[in-house]
Amino acid sequence: MAKPNLKITEIFHSLQGEARAIGLPTVFVRLTGCPLRCHYCDSAYAFHGGERRDLDEILAEVASYKARNVCVTGGEPLAQANCIPLLAALCDAGFEVSLETSGALDISAVDARVSRVLDLKTPASGECHRNLWDNIPHLTAHDQVKFVICDKDDFDWACFKVSEHDLCARAGDVLFSPSFGQVNPTDLANWVIESGLPVRFQLQLHKLLWGDEPGH
Ligand code: SF4
Questions:
Q1: Per-domain boundaries in the chain
Q2: What is the reported pTM?
Q3: What fold is seen in the domain 5-210?
Q4: pLDDT per residue over 134-146, tens digit each?
Q5: Helix axes 152-164, 185-195, angle to 10 degrees
Q6: What is the pLDDT of residue 2?
Q7: What spacing in Å lies between the alpha carbon of 103 and ligand 1's midpoint?
Q8: If you ran DSSP here, which 8-state letter would residue 71 be given?
Q9: Which SUPFAM superfamilies did the record assign (predicted)?
Q10: Nearest CA to ligand 1 atom 6
């Protein structure tokens, strides 16, 4: 029987640039393809192309970097059905695994050992209508919710959603991140302080260190 395979854009070793594991050496597995088209997307090069690789090959390359943390990202990783067995296999191999997902696809089948980073799309992303709100009851303290904020209206919308869905109680972390080059990070930091919400402001470390270069 053929082994499960996935379309892969790149596998690389870098520092985790955001969320709970920020700064830790991490292997990134970037899956090809995404059904969304957020206007600020910084990984559009993963929409097409890629190379089919089977699960054993992927696991062997990930292990070769000798990092403890692995982040499965995209594109939208869950758009490929074999992402689910990949995540389980990475957990079985002993890695600390996180998944970056758009929030538009069902997360319920993801292995419970995986920390899911659910990127809820704001109105200014252009893809807000794709948010799958049925995902919210599946969130646990092991998971994280992220909002990429493009302007003050996005910020106000995100604050409303945090309260409406009690996200700070459901998820381990709620992250507010400025859309790169669109909103002044200092303005966002001040809005977060003024809001009084227990959300975490973050800057994308990899962009400060390496700009928008793929492979970091
Ligand atoms: S979900 Fe992510 S990969 Fe897909 S278009 Fe939006 S930012 Fe890009």
A1: 5-210
A2: 0.95
A3: TIM Barrel (3.20.20)
A4: 999 999 999 999 9
A5: 30
A6: 73
A7: 10
A8: E
A9: Radical SAM enzymes
A10: 38
